[in-house]
Model the fold of this input.
Amino acid sequence: MSLKSFSIRLASMIVTLFGVAVVVFVVIRVAPGDPIAMMLPPGASEADIERLRGLYGLDKTVVEQFFIWLGGVVQGDFGTSISLRQDVLTIVLGRLPATLELATMALVIACALGLLLAVLGTRRRGRRAEAAVDLWNGMTLSIPDFLWGLIFILLFAVAIPLFPVSGRINPQLNPDYVTNFLLLESILRFDFAVTGNLLRHMALPALALALPLSAVIAQVLKQSLKEVMGLDYVMLARAKGFSEFAVIWREALRNAILPTLTLAGVQFTFLIGGTVIVEKLFSYEGLGNLAIDAVINRDLPLIQGIVLVFAVLFILINLAVDLLYATLNPRLRNG
Amino acid sequence: MAETARTPLRLWLSGGWLLLVVAAALFAPWIAPHDPLAQDLFLERLPPFWIEGSEPGYWLGTDSLGRDVLSRMIFGAQIALIVAILAGGAACLIGSALGLAAGYFGGWTDRVIGRIVDIWMSFPPVLFAILLVAVLGTGLHSVIIAIAVIDWTRFARVIRAETMGQTRMDYVDSALVVGRSRAGILAREVLPNVLPTIGVLLSLEMGIAVIVEAILSFVNLSIATDDPTWGGMIAEGRTQIHFAWWVLVFPMIALFLTVLSFSQFGEGLKDRLDPVLR
Done:
């Protein structure tokens, strides 16, 4: 990616972020109820109300208020949570690692499963195995992550109690770690009892999130593999005597992977959105679970913080995908 | 092609189930065997009819308050359909109008609408829904508004691309040459050609609306807990999972079949309407 196209991309990212900030501000401000009235006891004097308005900048114009608010947000001042009485940014950053670990795990599962299905479907194209792969993809695609989660709870809580269906870790383990990236830190510390427990808790929610994405990946990758398999250079590799599997794995895949990559990036942002409900379903202590509690408590500062952090995350993922695409696609390298 | 042979069956099956749901919703007061709100503590957690201990008349068993599961499911279909029609319809109207405008007029109109769509899509949909419901207050009206406000982008993007393609066709130029107004061409020439795509998207969107409503009822952000909704029943069933699996399983099946039918109906429609694919 050239410097010019990179700066265009960056500028458009900043415009989008600004737009997100405007939307969040507007939505939060149209919320019914006077914030000052909620802070003061009944019977407060007019002078008190005015003083408090001035203190919170509510006597200024809406545009001025927006920039005061934006200035605070840029510096990491997201306000104080009403229900938890703590700094919003601290709470959000404390919960973010759990969600990131879950989402990454789901992404890894989805990619591995999608790749496997696509290669299998291509290797055995035109046979029953391909039809089975197509059927499976169609089925996984039409069941949303929420229903997958319920199905797993039903299967594993009632029928075969193999995996725990709630929480992030067994509370008795209670690891005393520096960061909240428990999985990563437990691996670095060789604390494999904790790692194992975390993974067992993560398995079902991650799989529920991964299945719909794996079907998308498998479908698109299989389609582009099919196109590539007919090209001359693949024929040549076959003529050289490579096995069918080696032809797919070493030659075809390299060219077929690009469209899948872009798609997986976009879909990954949907997956992160899905963590909200899946975390609630499995009582997993991440950001999504926190978001729902915040809504039930009408904790607007906290909701605002969570939404902004998610939006930044989304935009960063999209940027990362663009960069990765540019690095991997030789045609764009000096565009 | 195998695809063409399968299409009618797909349309029949999904259409059939959707018709059943519509019938259940319309005639709920007459076909539901019991009052969906009636509690009976002597009849709590009755199993479905084929399991020992069931009570005649309570076909799919009862929940922890002795309410009839089948009756609650039938009444739950009303909420699901109201949301599908109102939220899906509103998202369709807003998104298609903006998509048509962006695709047909191009230039600044297109750039402004495109930028709004970009900003909109950088929010995770579920989170956006939660933000809106938090501000609007919980309840069915908030759920419908939230879905419409969030999901119009799905229509806008596709319809914009489709309109652009149509606008470049010769027939649009011919209409201009014979002196038709731009608005007239958009309404009379372009719109009928993108209508099939709008229909397909609408069917998919209605399925999405049903699942979103279920999710919001599940986390208690939709209508009051007493009223029967599939999502609310699933939430109750989740807590009863070790004692009464049927409270969870039956509404789940209803939800699954409905969501699946909407998406399969849309796909089937696409295969039938797209002359290139046919």
In short: Chain A has a mean pLDDT of 82. Residues 3-74 of chain A form one domain.
